[in-house]
Amino acid sequence: MRREAPQKIGDYAPLFFPATMLIVFFVVPFATMIAVSFFQRQQAGFYVPAFVLSNYERFISWFFANVLGFSLMLAVVVAICCVVLALPFTYLLTRMQRKVQIVWLVALLSVLSLSEVIIGFAWSTLFSRTAGITNLLVMAGILSEAKALLPSFGAVLTGMVYQAFPYTVLVLYPALVRLDPTLTEAARTLGASPVKAFFTVVVPALRNTITATLIMVFIFALGSYLLPQLLGRPQHWTLSVLITDQAIYQSNMPFAAAMAVFLVLVTLGLVALTVIAGRKGEAA
Amino acid sequence: MKDLVNKPVSRRVVLAGGAAATAMLAMPSILRAQDKSLKVGVYGGYFKDSFDKNIFPEFTKVTGIAVESVAEPTGEAWLVQLEQAAKAGAAPADVSMMSQVAMLKGQSTDLWAPLDVAKIKNAGNLIDRFVNKYPDGRIAGIGAVSWYITLVTNTDVYKEAPTSWEALWDPANADKLGLLALVSNSFLLEVTAKTFFGGTNALDTEEGLQKAFDKLAEVKPNVRLWYRDEAQFEQSLKSGEIPMGQYYHDVTGLAAADGNPVRSTFPKEGGIQDSGCWALSRASTKVEEAHVFIDYMSQPSIQAILSRKVGTSPTVKRELTDLTAEEFAAVSSDIEPIIPRYDLYQTKSDWLNQKWTELIVG
């Protein structure tokens, strides 16, 4: 098939639909959110259109800095855990028979069909004292008494890694399937152990994919607001939890919007930094 | 029994589904050709289903007014929609069931059409505090239903029922409590004031509030779960995972009736009584029908049906209803209740919210 540069407006027609969708469902809501973040909050009522910075001023405090810092840290840890677990897993998966691969992929996809609520409640049961996994350890004689593993940071982390793991595998899978097997074979022929070949050949060859996956899981984890509530203590609540509180329970839309805009800006900034750092590393 | 489990969630918590319902509500609905009709907003889910089944058909039969019930989200999302619609001269519902804080916020913009008590002869049946008035005395809303939040315990873990809210502060209960996560729905400042400082008037001043916050900070080590999602606490309470906390009296009663080892206790300082009002949007043209509806709902017999079928506490005086002692105890108590300081959540809401969040998160 021959490709021609678009000549008439009509040639751009296929783009109209996605462009409209993008404008209606992303550009307009986001612009509205930015506008609302400058509106004046009326404590006894709603908000009135205005241009004030007070919503941002309220956010700039040690309290919110800590919450933001925790949210970012949690998302980074989730991203790292997911990639560390998923990379060897996916690598081994691509070496398996086609049939086995399909079974695994279907299982992972079915995890994606679970909602955050179900995942949260399932883990809170598994981590509970009365019905949780520690009861199995007691039966096995490892623990003397069943205990609750939640609310805790570990519980939040487990839940979020569980939720993000299938995405991580699905993003890594295509790159690993396409990876030339002769690369590792060459390394093996030259005397490298399988583990050494994995770390010195597979991982460096996939550097860009790994960075992209880290960023994707990071952003995915940053939006989480249900699992920290279900599995953590208040100090494990993310900024998203506080945004929800303001928007839904306090009807303080301007402040909620200001926090959301701030979160988006910080996220974009961090992603940009990662990409720039990645390019520099490549150039060196 | 699934409905019972879902009840508190659908009735008082805003779910994502609320957003979907909202989107539908925003579309112009086609009214059926009917001589007399009224759009009534009630909390979606269990509440709306119960009203559709037990209340509205009978109302239409008696008065000839067709009711179109509208599922409204709880929280303040519905208030915002009513407000914005009223500005455009539209009313997504004529009469809506509104929380007390939403009533006050609506008053600030004159959202509620003043009601004429002369047309609501049953208004005399109401307990005084359930008549919601503008500062100048006009009537903004009439009590629709009320419910209690009480001290609940797991009977396997606590053989003896606690008698006072002070149990929340008892060091023996470390890491055992489940409490509501928001200042404006847990009403724990009021509980603290009533239990330790002689009454909710202690919250009049900022120093009084600060004292209550300081006292409340002592509860923190006892709290295992600060919940927004009620199903989460209910499950943990039943299993004994989190054996004590604050919860809804009616739902706890239903859970106990199902054989779960839970009990609800009215502490000697009183249970927390929260309520909803019927209010008429100023954009509504169905003023006559609205008065007929509110009058109908204020009858002692209808309030008794609500107590029996929906599990709410009557907003009319107890002696007017034919509720038996047992039926009354299932939904209410004669102990003087703790009435939330709704005014604070209007005038000081941001300050209180900030202090509260810092208290529990920090």
Looking at this protein, list some descriptive labels:
heterodimer; A: 284 residues; mainly alpha; MetI-like fold; 2 strands; 73% helix; B: 362 residues; alpha/beta; D-Maltodextrin-Binding Protein, domain 2; 10-stranded mixed beta sheet; 16 helices; disordered N terminus
Question: If you had to describe this structure to a student in words, what would you say it looks like?
Answer:
Chain A is an all-alpha fold. Chain A has a single domain, classed as MetI-like (MetI-like fold). Chain A contains 13 helices and two strands, in the order H-E-E-H-H-H-H-H-H-H-H-H-H-H-H. A two-stranded antiparallel sheet of chain A has the order 1-2. In chain A, a hairpin with a 5-residue loop joins strand 1 and strand 2. In chain A, helix 4 packs across helix 7, helix 5 crosses helix 7 and helix 10 runs antiparallel to helix 13. The radius of gyration of chain A is 24 Å and the shape is globular. With 362 residues, chain B is α/β, with parallel strands linked by helices. In chain B, strands 1, 2, 3, 4, 5, 6, 7, 8, 9 and 10 form a ten-stranded mixed sheet that branches. In chain B, a hairpin with a 5-residue loop joins strand 4 and strand 5. Chain B is globular and about 65 Å long. Chain B starts with a helix and ends with a helix. The chains are: A mainly alpha (284), B alpha/beta (362).
